[in-house]
Design brief:
GO terms for molecular function: sucrose:proton symporter activity. By secondary structure, this protein is mainly α. It has one domain: MFS general substrate transporter like domains (Growth Hormone, Chain: A, Up-down Bundle), CATH 1.20.1250. The chain is built from 10 helices and no strands. Helix 6 runs antiparallel to helix 7. The chain starts with 6 loop residues before the first helix and ends in a 14-residue tail after the last helix.
Length: 294
């Protein structure tokens, strides 16, 4: 710590250093473990020709990326729509989870007393429990998807996510109704309820990190499209909703008087809609069809 960097700044810098270390280690492992064979034709190509064609290749890639959507079938558009709604649901939680715990459960404000910091630390504990459930779900995911179908499992997980967000709104209402905020720490029951919500959300988060990618790969295989381009379009369905939430959540919350509840309400609606799409609109047998890629 320095006079210009308090404890919060020091904690953030420490987290960044850890992130850099983890990224360096995982990048090294990926490079050393993936034994890729380079194309022989690329070595035979003159350097001048490669440099001259780089701009054309870039334009061709962008054209292919946006031109791919013309060949998407209805199930692919359904998966992209469900993915966009899913991330509209997830991103408010990923942005405001610990802030919600510190501000609306513990009744604190940043740099104003210890309550906010205690709440943020408790939120970090909830995220730890969330990660434990996420890991367990990842181990069991193959069996779940094989028995019930990937689309059905995705839909159920999103409905569970919507229920958890509604539960967060209820816990926020109860915390304000009890009247302890600004006077004392929250009751044990409120804290346990908040931690339980964080923990349960690990199940749908594990599904979100895996199932959409598997579904989009399966349904684009029969179209003869490159899976790299398909993954790019799927990533756009993830990134664009995140940008919308990042830009709009603050003004949206202020429109209703501040707090995180308005953003969580939108998240609950989006998660519920994506859950119904996953159950009703995504074909159950899509992942079981054997197709050959052109």
């Amino acid at each position: 710590m320095t006079p210009a960097c308090n404890i919060s700044c020091a904690n953030l810098k420490s987290a960044f250093y850890l992130d850099v270390g983890f990224i360096a280690v995982t990048t090294y492992i990926s490079i050393m473990a993936a034994h890729e064979v380079p194309l022989s034709s690329s070595r035979a190509q003159p350097v001048e020709a490669a440099a001259g064609e780089s701009g054309v290749a870039g334009e061709a890639f962008l054209w292919e990326l946006f031109g791919t959507v013309r060949y998407f079938s209805t199930p692919v558009w359904t998966i992209l729509s469900a993915t966009a709604l899913t991330w509209i649901g997830w991103f408010p939680f990923l942005l405001f989870d610990t802030d919600w715990m510190g501000r609306e459960i513990y009744g604190g404000e940043p740099n104003e007393g210890p309550n906010y910091d205690i709440g943020v630390r408790m939120g970090a504990m909830g995220l730890l429990l969330n990660s434990v459930v996420l890991g367990i779900t990842s181990v069991l995911m193959e069996r779940l998807c094989r028995n019930r179908g990937a689309g059905f499992v995705w839909g159920i997980s999103n409905i569970l996510m919507a229920v958890c967000f509604v539960a967060m709104l209820i816990v926020t209402y109860l915390a304000n109704r009890i009247g302890y905020i600004g006077k004392e720490l929250p009751p044990t029951g409120i804290v346990i309820a908040a931690l339980t919500i964080f923990t349960v959300l690990g199940f749908p988060l594990a599904i979100t990190y895996s199932v959409p990618y598997a579904l989009i790969s399966t349904h684009t295989q029969s179209l003869g499209l490159g899976q790299g381009l398909s993954m790019g379009v799927l990533n756009l369905a993830i990134v664009l909703p995140q940008m919308v939430v990042s830009l709009g959540s603050g003004p949206w919350d202020q429109l209703f008087g501040g707090g995180n509840s308005p953003a969580f309400a939108v998240a609950a609606v989006a998660a519920l809609l994506s859950g119904f799409i996953g159950i009703l609109a995504i074909p159950r047998s899509g992942g079981q069809k054997s197709t050959s890629q052109a």
